[in-house]
Amino acid sequence: MKPLLVYLHGLNSSSQSRKAIQTVEYVQQHHMEVELWVPDLPVFPSDIIQCLQSHLKKSINQRDIYIIGSSLGGFLGTWLLDWLVNNRHQQKVRLVLINPAVVPHERFEAFLGPQKNYHTGADWVMTEEYVEQLLLLEVEPAPSPENTLLLVQTGDETLDYRLAVDKYKECRAIVQEGGTHAFDHFEDILPEVFDFLTSV
Asked: Nearest 5°: CA angle at 51, between 47 and 55?
C-alpha cells in the first residue's frame, strides 16, 4: 500500500489553507507515491479524534503514515503520533510540526465565545467544554522524538515559538528567524519536509 500522508490544518482553517494547497501541489508536481488525506476537520476536539481514528485505524500496521500538522493541527498531530505508537503501529510513522500549538487549552481560555472559520465562513462557539476536550489530548513528553521534525519561525505573532522549541527539544528542529504564524515561504522548505518524511 502507498504511504498515507495526513495534513492537519489549524484552528478556524480548512483543507483550502495555503500550506495545505502547497503540500498537495508539491506531491502532485513530483508524482509522489503517497495517498493524500487533507480533511476539513470538525470543530470540537472529540469529533476530530473520532474522525482521525475512524480513518486511520485501517492503516495501522498496513502502511507508512506521514503527518503534517500546522498550529492546532500540530497539537493534534502530536496526539495522533502518540495514539499510533500506543496502538503498536509497526510501520514507519513521521510527524512534521509547523509553528505548532503547545498548550492551546491554556491559551484558548481567553477566546471563549463566538468564532468564525476564516475559509468557510462558518460560525461556531468556543465553550469551556471545547477547552476541556483539548486538555484531554495533551501528550507529555513529546512521543517518538526521532520521528518528529519541528519547524518554527521566531516572528510567529500568534504563538511563542520558544514553547514549541522547549517541548520538542529532543526532536530535530529548524528554527527560522523572522517570519509569521503562517510560516512564510513554506514552499521553499517542502523538499526538506519530504526528505524527512520519506527517509529510511
From this structure: 170
- What cell does 157 get? 505573532
pLDDT for 56-105, tens place per residue? 999 999 999 999 999 999 999 999 999 999 998 989 999 999 999 998 77
Residue 127: DSSP 8-state: -
Peptide bond into 141 cis (omega under 30): yes
Give the closest residue to 75 by CA, choosing from 93, 99, 102, 111: 102
pLDDT in tens, 169-178: 999 999 999 9
**Summary mean pLDDT of the chain:** 94
Q: Which amino acid is at 49?
A: I
Return the sign of the alpha-carbon dihedral for residues 156, 51, 46, 83.
negative
Residue 163's H or E segment, with its range, is: helix 161-167
Could you give the CA distance from residue 83 to residue 77 in angstroms, rounded to a whole number? 10
The structural domains of the chain, ordered by start, are 4-103+141-198 (3.40.50.1820)
CA dihedral 71→130→45→174, nearest 10 degrees, is 20
Q: State the Cα–Cα distance between residues 77 and 53, nearest whole angstrom.
A: 12
